[in-house]
Amino acid sequence: MRTDLVQILNTVMDRRAAIAVGGAAIAGAATAAAAGLDALNPFASTESREASRIEWQQYFQANYRVMTEEEKQESLARLERFHELRNGTRIEVSGAEPRANVLFGYAFNVSKCRGYMDCVRACIRENNQDRKSGMAYIRIHEHKKGDFDFEKADDNFFHEVPAAGHFYLGTQCFHCQNPPCVDVCPVKATWMEPDGIVVVDYNWCIGCRYCMAACPYDARRFNWAEPEVPQDELSPNQHYLGNRLRSKGVVEKCTFCIQRSREGKSPACVEACPTGARIFGNLLDPNSEIRWVLANKKVFRLKEDLGTDPKFWYFMD
Amino acid sequence: MALLTALMCAGAFAYSVQLDRGLAATGMHDHVSWGFYISNFAFLVGVAAAAVILVMPTYILHDVDFKQAVLIGEAVAVSAVLMAIAFVVVDVGGPARLWHALPVIGLLNFPRSLLAWDILVLNGYLALNFAIPLYLLYSRYCGRTPDKKKYVPFVLLSIAWAVSLHLVTAFLFAGLPARPYWNSSLLGPRFLATAFTAGPALIILILLGIRRFTEFPVSENTIQKLAMVVTVAAQVCCVMTTSEIFTETYRTTHHSHSAKYLFFGLHGYNRLVPWIWTSIGLLFAATATLSIHRLRRHPAMLAACCLALFGAVEIEKGMGTIIPGFIPEPWGKIHEYAPTWVEFVVGAGIAAMGAFVFTVLAKVAIAVELGYMSQRVEPEAALSTIDAR
Q: Which CATH class is domain A96-317?
């Protein structure tokens, strides 16, 4: 009991000023206090006290980018422990850092895509996206041959593919090298990592959705309600900046499957694509497949006039 | 006041529903990710900024006609800013995390993010408009003459601040190339023109009410000068509206699709069309009426026109500016938006909160100005007060 109290007070000490300032902090303090009180409640079970203490500590944790190495490890351990307390299953949350001399890029072969949507399904599953609202990072657009106008394309088709006289094209986060979404975030909750991946700290995002208004590619998704992922479909290998479970009221997006790509694997969509339309790799490696595509195919990008410099190219055979 | 309290309670209840269910309780979705709340925010920032129209002539040009109205104008500014801040707070997904934007303990993305700018200018404007009248009224209450050196610099600051406040709010939207409907250099000036229409229109309505129901003297001259401001600003709004409609419709491009959706409907979707034409109709009719001197000087006509202009701008800011920016979405699909009861009731609660704050501020200001409220003073000081008058 006493150690509980001491731990809680120690955690809060350096950021205690937060509670004292402003109306926003009052609302926050109420949330935190509820968690804190539960942590002190002698009648609550040990597990529920521990879970409440983790919530309390998470509430006061810093932005991931300014955390010390030790604080990062603590926050990763908290996520794993919290999941175990709530669901009784083990997950692994990695904080794998970007590797040196790596800049990720992506290429999409318009000739090969046939609209099978395996990429979409794999993405939803790999990234633990909310099943209830039907969230998906990837959109597949079905265009009539001879018409590249997205407005006339169908992104919500339910028929046998490939449909005669049509071609298919997928959009997702293009991980712009000059991302407008990062500029507009009022609290620096989203940023571009050194390996080129645009990420979100789901614990720091305040849910203002300015980034969604700023994105010209419809890459970002908001958790309008508490997301639901069935336990038996959960991807247990997670990354702090990637597919770990989100809560309601925060923004999320494609991270080039950061939990996979930083381990040297391809994103789930690339692996799932049955036609080989998706190509992913290191733009700084002259021998990578993506570099071969850029050197040998006539590539183009979408909405280049906006100056966002996407790291996502399209090409045809 | 009891009615306002009841409305605030209803708003608090609706907000608790939203906190529990998440923003899914609103009509917003991934395609129209800002709606009723942010629309009202943009509108109210304009109302607040327009208080400057009363401050400038009073303090800089020493225009006595405006002097009587200035405290009321500042009370309007304070309550409008409070409402604007409240609309942002109810719009965010994690209100408990708003401390992330506080200095030192948070991490404000200043100066890159325009929202960070807006957080700073809103709070600064609130402080200025609260502090200046407080100082003036307290001096009056104590029977002292306010020291000009102490407050005039802040008055000057507040004037510049008001203009930049609304410009920054416009830049919040105009700075997004992703939304071609907003990404226009007309947006900032248009925000100012509509603000200087709706803000003083509201103040005229309030002053007419005060003149009728209290002893506080509001001269016809004050009202007429304000009416002139409203008229000119409304005329500018008409010019800008016409200019926008021409540019967007003469040669239609993909970038005009939002405007096409707004004014005429697109691919059979036309939810906003009746609203925008109501707004434009009210704007042009009221502007034409006010432009005729005889009609403008008629109190009932003036009140009706002010009400019409206030409504026209409210519709134009919300349904005519914020929402069509999101329709069609970046890949051209149309997903319409309609607010839910939760949004309306939360909005009504915030409006009641604003009216409540305004009533308290205005009552105190009027009481002090009329001399009903003052510190018990020594006879000598009392004499000097009378002399000063």
A: alpha beta
